[in-house]
Amino acid sequence: MDQALHLHDEARRPPRLAGLVPFSGCDWPGELACVVFIAGCPWRCRYCHNPELQQRVAPPGAPQWDEILGWLPTRRGLIDAVVFCGGDPLVEARLPEMLAQVRALGFKTALHTGGAYPVRFAQCLPLLDWVGFDIKHDFADYAGITGVLNSGEAARRSLDLLLASGVAFECRTTWHPILQDNAALLRLADTLATLGVRDYALQCFRPTGCHDQELVRQPVGLPDAQLLSALAQRFDHFTLREAA
Questions:
Q1: Which CATH number fits domain 3-241: 3.20.20.70, 3.40.50.300, 3.10.129.10, 3.30.2290.10?
Q2: What is the reported pTM?
Q3: What are the residues whose beta carbons fall under 8 Å from the beta carbon of 28, sequence distance 6 or more?
Q4: How far apart are the C-alpha atoms of 55 and 38, rounded to whole Å?
Q5: Engineered SS bond to 145: which of 61, 91, 136, 201, CB 3.0-4.6 Å?
Q6: Residues of the chain with pLDDT > 70: what percent?
């Protein structure tokens, strides 16, 4: 199919959703929100714990976007925001429109993304209050995590857009010692701090749902205290998130 025709078709079809969490206090730190999951992701990260969301197919029983728009006004006073997650929600051509609709209802908006689609990310940024931005590895080494060539280039372009936007954000990296040793994490932290990242989180690998048996077989534990101290010194705000 011609790419222009494909994009036009994507923009006309109803958003492909994968699920809804009606209430969350952890997907946007400090905010009470619902979480809308978008179906689809162009990357195949080794540590992914939601591989069922990688396909651009709405699962049976998934909510429709019009249903969520009708439900949101009933949540006024109970939640403050809507968080879009995935997969990578930037895969959804109608995401800028969806963000605008949420804001028109009086809710704040947030996005969890790895920045796979910089052009669409640029369209979304003026409609966002907060972004949780996944940093997989050094940008030159992304393919070892995502399985996709040049994915690091897309991520770096999206991070540059985010840094220039003025939108509040957190960068975070999922850590497994097979994927990133201490030296690699410190190099990454230096890169991010130099670029202007001030809020950084290290997320310990979660084996639940992961299909990569090499990662699942090796216990992770916690990073050593010296590494955590060194990371914390590089950012204004540093968070360690242990595996649930």
A1: 3.20.20.70
A2: 0.93
A3: 81, 83, 110, 130, 132
A4: 10
A5: 136
A6: 95
